[in-house]
Amino acid sequence: MPPSIIQACLDEDSVILGGTSFAASVKSTATEPLELESRKGAPNTNTYTLAQVATHNTKGDSWIIYKNKVLDVSKWMSSHPGGEQTIMRFAGMDATDELRSFHDSWVLDTKLPHFVIGTVTDAPETSELVKDFRALGEVFEELGYYHVSPWYYVRKVATVFCILICSLWLLFMTETFVAHMVSAVLLGIFWQQFAFVGHDCGHMSARTHARDNIDVPRLGALVTFLNGISVAWWKATHNVHHAVPNTVDCDPDIAHLPVFALHKLMFESLFNKYHGRVMEFDWPARNIFVPYQHLWYYPIMCVARFNLYIQSVLFLLSSNDGHGGRTRLDTAAFVGFFSWLTALVSFIPTWGERVAFVLLSHAVAGLLNVQITLSHFSRPIFDSPTKEAGSNKYGGDFYTRNVISSLDVACPSYLDWFHGGLQFQTLHHLYPRIGRQHLRTIEPFIASLCKKHALPYSRKSFLECNMEVFQVLKDAALHSRTWSPLIYESMCAQG
């Protein structure tokens, strides 16, 4: 696929911004029905309606649709490497673009045929928006943007470990308080930067080609050992976040009660589908945290890393939820992190300096928490899928949902290291397997396609993003001060 085709996206009179479908301009099989055979090797002639498929939406009876083919994944769900909850969010629904987004073509072509049980007879016509985004993804694949140069991460990892070595040298080879605090700052930066590398590997976007044999459990354990946050826990939450971003009762990345509530819907003590429990808008939420959450935001981000430790412990100690990432190796790596960190801190001569070292290093690493929340906290919140129907579930189709719920950070290229790829949140959500090396290159094409389809692509400076999140938190905080559970119950009363 010649680069000239994708370059045409930037021209005002091009197929992207013009009236012609971009998909029609690209030779792509993205929108063609998948010719899958049944488990026994012969074409399956069973047919189902969308309404029939929708009834199979429970843990023990889960059907999903991929390119108009019906897949029964009920028995396999607990073996899904991305966790059963990711599949459960689309049980009984069409998950074509979700599957295409997270999996290589060879995986879909070789694995999915085993689950085909029939065909959908009344599938709606694919919209031009979806066709265009699928076609653009095919172009990116042809141009090799789903893979990176082998030297790209060699340099990244080498740089990250140089930061760690400098931190250790200052801690062990100097005796002044100032030098030790600089060491703490460097350790916090190491955690932030190494988390970016782990994030890329978790999305399988750090590969040189599609068939790279990445040992995810061992690589994840290494990240856990050095970074202190269970990669198994991260995978369980992050996959669901990507599937249903900013959905009020499904996305774990916005479920932060009693500390934060981003929307009045969260004042209703909703049942959270990820956590499997009611997220209570209780007394601490109503009186201590949420009414002043815009003032709590940065102080909490400074210590948010401690909460991630707690979440990791709870995840590793809980019963198996069907997520294949929870392993003894990850647990051992988690224990190993606290072992080496404890030994490191014990080298510091006084307790006061030890406490200062730990708090400062964790506050610096808390920059990552700010960067993550900036991407979504100020974006629209989607209502519960139980209140929506059809294409309106989860905010619409995959591409619309992820554009609306994401905010990009505008920054010069020399600050790309600081943001670690998170500044291109929109295109990362649209094509999560794109290598970080290529994100800046493809950003204009995403913006152009959003412009054609009148999608609200948002890109602001780091300062503006912070101000916007602060304002959203403040607005919700002020609203919570006038909200009453008695008023809410009276609005829901019948008769």
UniProtKB/TrEMBL annotation:
Location(s) in or outside the cell: Membrane
Domain of life: Eukaryota
Pathway annotation: Lipid metabolism
Keyword Isomerase set for record: no
Keyword vocabulary terms for this entry: Heme, Iron, Lipid metabolism, Membrane, Metal-binding, Oxidoreductase, Transmembrane, Transmembrane helix
InterPro entries cross-referenced by the UniProt entry: Cyt_B5-like_heme/steroid-bd, Cyt_B5-like_heme/steroid_sf, FA_desaturase_dom, Fatty_acid_desaturase
A GO cellular component entry from the record: membrane
SUPFAM superfamilies: Cytochrome b5-like heme/steroid binding domain
SMART domains: Cyt-b5 (SM01117)
Any GO molecular function: oxidoreductase activity
One GO-annotated biological process of the protein: lipid metabolic process
TM helices/strands, residue ranges: 153-172, 178-198, 296-317, 329-349, 355-374
Bilayer disposition of the protein: Multi-pass membrane protein
Protein name: Cytochrome b5 heme-binding domain-containing protein
Organism: Discostella pseudostelligera
